[in-house]
Amino acid sequence: MRFEVQVHEELKRAEIFGVINNIAGTDHTHNDCFACAILTHGGEEEILHAKDASYQLKELTQLLTPDKCPTLKGKPKLFFVQACRGYKLDDGVMQDVTDGDVFSDSTSRSHTIPLQADFLLAHSTCQDYYAWRHEANGSIFIQILCKCLNEFIPQGMDLMRILTRVSQIVARDFQSCTLDYATSGKKVMPSITSQLRFEVYFPARRLETTV
């Protein structure tokens, strides 16, 4: 997807904020988008855990608002978070299968934009709920996200439609399987909060040719 990728593992809280502050201080004039994936443990009240301490996602996003990072003004800032957001369990209910599609269109004629514009926060689970991962196979949310990006970007699908597909597949196909009856057979529902003002498309990966 032509991103310049940085990978950081097992960071302490100060190191995480150092990374985001460095991003905020970078000149993004020639960049179109910023994306951040966070895979960690979490808890109630939107708490995420670093190696040594906790923090909240909003503490990171507020470092990238247009007044703090002018060269990302008007550009998508995407956060994908695999973490628990509480300890509730979702038993699910039976429902007949139906198909649907959502179309949305938005325009803006404002001469200024809100500081919170152009953010997208994609969580692996709803607020107050547990997020599941397999000890060997990892997070179902991240796996399905990657699969859908690879499948639907070449088809010209925008990000919100792709994330709707992710939510559908995770909600439909996943249920927990544990040795504890109380936690087995539970469902999970990804949560997408969009403050985007425009549809977001990614360029499909092209095969490099040598002449």
Question: Major beta sheet, specifics?
Answer: 4 strands, mixed
Query: End-to-end span in angstroms?
Result: 23 Å
Q: What is the architecture at the second tier of CATH?
A: 3-Layer(aba) Sandwich
Strand content range: 15-25%
Radius of gyration (CA) equals: 18 Å
* Total helical segments: 4
- Looking at the structure, the CATH topology is Rossmann fold
- Give the strand tally: 11
Structural class label: alpha/beta
Report the helical percentage: 10-25%
Order of helices and strands: HEEEEHEEEEEEHHE
Query: How would the global form be characterised?
Result: globular
The CATH class, by name, is Alpha Beta
Stretches with pLDDT under 50, minimum 5 residues: 98-111, 207-211
What is the total number of structural domains?
Answer: 1
Main sheet: strand order: 1-5-7-11
* Mean pLDDT across all amino acids: 86
Key features of this structure:
single chain; 211 residues; alpha/beta; Rossmann fold; 4-stranded mixed beta sheet; 3-stranded antiparallel beta sheet; 11 strands; disordered C terminus
A few lines on this structure:
The protein has 211 residues and is an alpha/beta fold. The protein is built from four helices and eleven strands.
Description of the structure:
With 211 residues, the chain is α/β, with parallel strands linked by helices. It has a single domain, classed as Rossmann fold (3-Layer(aba) Sandwich). It contains 4 helices and 11 strands, in the order H-E-E-E-E-H-E-E-E-E-E-E-H-H-E. A 4-stranded mixed sheet has the order 1-5-7-11, covered by helices on one side. Strand 2 and strand 3 (47-49) form a beta hairpin. Helix 3 packs across helix 4 (159-173). The longest helix is centred in the last third of the chain and has 15 residues, at 159-173. The two termini are 23 Å apart. 18% of the residues are buried.
